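Translate sequence into structure tokens.
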Amino acid sequence: MNPFIHLHVHSQYSLLDGQASVKALVDKAIANGMKGIALTDHGNMFGAKEFFNYVNKKNGSVKKEIQEAEEALAKAREEGDEAAAAEAEAKKKAAENKILKPIFGCEMYVANKDLHESTDKRDTGRHLVVLAKNEKGYHNLIKLVSQAWTEGFYSHPRTDKKQLAAHRDGLIISSACLGGEIPRLIKTGQIEEAEKQVAWWKETFGDDYYIELQRHPTNAPGGNRSVFEDQKIVNPELIRIAQKFGIKIIATNDVHFVNETDAEAHDRLICVSTNSYLTDENRMRYTKQEWMKTQEEMNELFSDIPEALSNTLEILDKVETYSLDHGPIMPTFAIPEDFGTEAQYRERLTEKDLFDEFTQDENGNVVLSREGGRSQNKEAWRLRETLPYKTRSRLSEKTRLRRSKETLRRSPPRRHKGADKVRTAYNEDYGFPRILPYSARLYHRSPRTARSQRGTRPWLGSRKLRGLLPGHNPDRPREI
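Result follows.
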């Protein structure tokens, strides 16, 4: 069996078109032993960070296995135990094969001419799969996708060949599905024009340009059978042109859902997307073959062109591993020269200047004296300790002071036999703090839990607990 990875994959971030979740795609790739997977949503990169984070999470345990194997290998070599060293080496290689490499990409829409032209309503863009080979390519892809939305949007976010050529560093290009430029030209009989455009792509991207093949034979009820008929016409010409220009071919499946059984759910999603009834015979239909097929299924489908499968691993080897994490990007403001440095600014301000800044209104009237501020601050810090931490964090300062004072004024609770300790709890339903016996702690829930589990929590209506709470009516049990 020839190894294979998916390089044309749509997730739920291909809005109202992809039905697969990022996690499900990654999980299936790992379960099937794939060494990598690409994410190429329609016109956007919304799923890139989730994709990166989840792959890192899944690789975390594998990296731990590799580290343990390396430590065992070093120890065996130090002791001169060849058998243990060979075993550790085997474990290390087995663990390294479990690492999944994420490939960040996008299926972009390429305008017929210029991305700024919006005169032809039919120019919704030709499909093109663009993959980031390294961090430089990732940043170039971000620029292209962002520009497609901010400058080239016309029914779809579009780029053009001029921009692709200008940002080609670190990018890998694939001719995409039947909606791509080259398959469209072949389908309409424009073979010479197709060869001309392939020559341009080859000249611009060199060995990083690939021709993509797809095969979607279907007998599924409601599946679009005409797609495979078109593929049978287009694919032989794609192979011939690839051989003529020395371009490698790759096999893809245009993944839109995870498992074969998800085809019906995806079909209904397309009905929502196109505002069509399920019973409409003329509505848009997929072949129902666009699930994430296993390596075995793809080998069966492309058994006559094994290089189309193995070439996907060549692209995987080209792709570097890099991180999407970075520090916060803060805006840069020009500081006037007369402001000086921060140290100089601090020297110009006295403690009185700072106090006046926050204790006077816009007319210069004093709203809080220095003595009043000190006493209020001291009182606030004393009273804040009477409320639990989680409650304090949700209440405004004014509300904290009011409720804390109410707690201090309230008379001590009646003691219950066996309840040697008391604790303070905040009951959001009542709106003020209460003192509960320590023995009632199992009945306490946080205010957040109280909202989510209202009606299912225990009542303080038992004889054992009646009368323990100030103002509690034993004839009307209430929740805490």
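Note: Strands lie at 36-42, 101-110, 126-132, 158-159, 171-174, 209-213, 249-251, 422-427, 432-437.
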